[in-house]
From TrEMBL:
Keywords of the record: Hydrolase
Top-level taxon of the source organism: Bacteria
Reactions catalysed according to its record: 3',5'-cyclic CMP + H2O = CMP + H(+); 3',5'-cyclic UMP + H2O = UMP + H(+)
A GO molecular function held by the record: hydrolase activity
Metallo-beta-lactamase domain location: 19-224
Species assigned in the record: Paenibacillus endophyticus
InterPro entries: Metallo-B-lactamas (IPR001279), NDM-1-like (IPR050855), RibonucZ/Hydroxyglut_hydro (IPR036866)
Role, per record: Counteracts the endogenous Pycsar antiviral defense system. Phosphodiesterase that enables metal-dependent hydrolysis of host cyclic nucleotide Pycsar defense signals such as cCMP and cUMP.
Gene3D superfamilies per record: Ribonuclease Z/Hydroxyacylglutathione hydrolase-like (3.60.15.10)
Name recorded for this polypeptide: Glyoxylase-like metal-dependent hydrolase (Beta-lactamase superfamily II)
């Protein structure tokens, strides 16, 4: 039986309660983790996995939707502890994950630093140091748009750039489920663009959302928000309309 486990992880960051939702996909031969939280999140991942009677040691593959620190922060630690895990990411993301290129969020933070107020600079410096602390990890396999991975009844790669250039979402045709990553998030029960003020290319992010209408999606799981409850197609149309009005 193929299963999809939502690893809801609640924590405090910058004095605020937050929740992220990595995903575990399971079939008879593979256990696939999708994204892995901030640095030092392995104990939280293990606790969340144990709630579904799963251990991190059983993970065979780890798919990274993009290289933001809340998605790759524990990647190197997981690979170091469980070297059998194959790390999979879009071909555009691989150099950033592996440390061959500077993280784009780090470039973004450094390039805007001088324009900040004196009051804001200490927080920005702390954020920059945090980004610099993220450990790189080699990517074992790169994927591209439209590629169909054979595990768990098939996982289709959808390149959804905008948030970051190599961002991917995953479509599971057997259950008509979209694992969105940060292509969309849930805010107050509605689909939204993730942190539009920090999205590297907002127009491209909207085009990525529009491309989701090409898929027969009945369920969306967002990294920030979990399961979306409602009419998916209608919600996507409403989100696009917000930016076209």
């Amino acid at each position: 039986m193929n299963m999809c486990h939502l690893l809801e992880i609640e924590f405090e960051y910058s004095g605020q309660k937050q929740i992220i939702t990595p995903i575990l996909l399971q079939d008879k031969t593979d256990m696939i983790l999708i994204d892995c939280g901030y640095p030092d999140f392995m104990p939280l991942l293990e606790e969340a996995a144990n709630r579904h009677n799963v251990t991190l040691a059983s993970i065979t593959k780890l798919i990274v939707t993009h290289h933001d620190m809340d998605h790759i922060g524990s990647l190197a630690a997981l690979k170091r502890t469980y070297p059998h895990i194959d790390i999979i990411a879009h071909e555009l993301e691989a150099p950033y994950i592996a440390g061959a290129k500077k993280l784009l969020r780090l470039e973004q933070a450094q390039s805007t630093f001088n324009a900040l107020s004196d009051e804001a600079k200490p927080y920005a410096e702390q954020f920059i140091r945090f980004l610099q602390s993220v450990e790189p990890a080699a990517v074992n396999r790169t994927v591209s748009n439209g590629e169909r991975l054979p595990w768990c009844d098939g996982i289709e790669i959808i390149h959804t750039p905008g948030h970051l250039p190599g961002h991917i979402s995953l479509y599971l045709p057997a259950s008509k489920t979209l694992i969105a990553g940060d292509a969309v998030v849930i805010e107050e029960g509605m689909l939204a663009i993730a942190n539009p003020q920090y999205t590297l290319d907002l127009d491209e992010a909207i085009r990525s959302v529009q491309r989701l209408l090409d898929y027969d999606i009945e369920q969306i799981i967002c990294y920030h928000g979990g399961y979306f409850h409602g009419d998916v197609q209608q919600a996507i149309h409403q989100l696009i309309a917000q930016y076209k009005s």
